[in-house]
Fold:
Amino acid sequence: MEALSIIPVQFLHGLVYGMLLFLVASGLTLIFGMMGVLNFAHGALYMLGAYFSFSILRWTGQFWLCMIVAPLLVGAFGILMERFLLRQVHRYGHAHELLLTFGLAYIIEELVKWIWGNQPLHVEIPAMLAGSVQFLGITYPTYRLFILLISAIVFAVLFLILYKTRAGIIVTAAVSRAEMVNALGINVPLVFMLLFGVGGALAGLAGVIGGPYLITNPGMASTIIIDLFVVVVVGGLGSLPGALLASFLIGELQSFGILLIPQMAIALEFLLMAVVLIVKPEGLLGDKA
Amino acid sequence: MKRKLWIGTIVMVVVTLLAAPAAWSAETVNFGVCEIRSGAFKTNGDRTIWGIEAAVKEANSQGGLLGKQINLVIEDNQGKGEIGVQKTKKLVMQDKCVVVIQGSSSGVGGAIGQAMPRLKRIYLDTNAEAMGITGENFNPYVFRTCLNAGMHVKALATYFGTKTKLRKVFLINQDYSWGYDVAKYYEKAIKEIAPDTEIVGKEFHPVFNKDFAPYVSKIAASGADYVISGNWGTDLTQLIVQGRKLGMKLPIGTTFLDDDGVMSIARESAEGCIQANMYILGIDTDKARAFENTFHKYSDGKWPSFVIMEAYIGTKMFIEAVRKAGSFDTEKIIKAFEGMTWEGPIGPITMRPEDHQAQNPAVIAEYAAQTKYYDFPYLKPIMTIPASDISLSLEDSGWKPYKR
Structure:
């Protein structure tokens, strides 16, 4: 490979990883960014999506079915989690939510090990995604391009719903002016519960997509959770375009970091966070509160 | 009334539990196992224990050790050195174990090893390969029955340097002491064996790295004709699977591909990989087959892949040393173990008296689409390397004499 052609390739690698990160973080943008719930179990929900997908695939052999059913299951799990656990501690503030979800993350991880075992699992992807395509003089796995496609669709759909529909207006209003919206006759707790469900479902979808790419294993939640919070904080709390931008930046920083200053690569994302917090504490595209 | 009955039952249970070990002690001897039993590395601990259990079961079914049945006392070190030391003290002082076995972690192994001179008991390292354990931190109470990092990669260097014409190597390893040991000792060994070899790249990535694509494009850009990696677990699987999907077809020399957990995911992607270790399933000799079948029999139908065989061999060697000593006395076992030669599945293993580092032969293996062991592709042996070819001198191992 020519020395020059490594740059577009490295860019593509960074883009794909960044977009997977966005896919996982999009649900957290709703839950943490908008609702303000410090959900440390978000990584665990993502992991559940990957494991549900593994089992559905084993029973039915349909990857496409996994992409629908697994997010629904994780979404339902998220709803139950909100209704029966988080709602009970909400009034005690962030510290309680943090402790609760932190504990939940551990419990889910142990449950996953108990049900599916400690070993990483092999997830077969459909033949049409398993191959690779040739372009720019390189071989690129189709599945990585598929990740780009899915994250683009998720971004577009979420963006339209949140910012262009009545439902989206209710959600944003319920988050920032809960009492007012409640007074207008909208059931705010219900809105919150459903929002949590959607956030969970997005994590589940990310798990289905991420499992075959980053390997379905019991450590997949704990290795991604910090990155997720960095994405949401850097992007700006509750800002979907912000999360997209932050994911992109982190992906590229990592990719080019490895190319140029490999010993420092792992620190770059935190350096970015530190700089953003100093220069623009509300995040890249966040609202000034 | 009911409450009294409850209390009575509990007291009875407690008394029975407390009395039980004392009642056995007449005809049993305790071996301590201080392994990781929780968290992300539990699989490694489980496997080490399978190996130890099979060796103990085998010995017990053949009349035990010096007339006593061996009883295993297992503690969880949680993957942490200080907890490992705590549990080791408990195993020695409370359970009177004649040995403490640990293999999964070099970090924990190092800590346990350091604690042994005060406890005056033997630490048997069946799997942990960090150089320091029998090198600069050597003390006479530590015995290592597996390869160390330097010997392990010297086996790989012997293969690539003498059996192939590949001379441009890219070293990619995990960013902690093990990864650095692999890179350092591979470089040293290959410069001796094939001095015209060029190191075209050397990278260290975080443990549990997620995306390997940026590293793979660096490997491709480096002009390497083969890759060496001491990675284990998902870091190894990811490197191989993502690398192959990105079109990197280079041979990859590995130290831990003989893990059925890794192979069950890597599958066809592992084609072109070269694996070295002190054993590999499927060696076609009567002795090796007998080893596998005996293990199979005493482990409820498991096959000794990865760390399992190392733990099995290590425990068997220790049992042999006790037999040779004719006593459970630590100092007598040390004397008997030093210089002891034991017939392993692929040849004799000698316990070097100076540093207590076993001198093992090694096996090189390559990808096999089908084996009798697993329903996914695994590995098959292609070459055995005698212990003398991969041995490191005391000086090269960084060995320092023990000062009391």
Observations:
- The domain at 6-279 of chain A is CATH 1.10.3470 (ABC transporter involved in vitamin B12 uptake, BtuC).
- Chain A has one domain: 6-279.
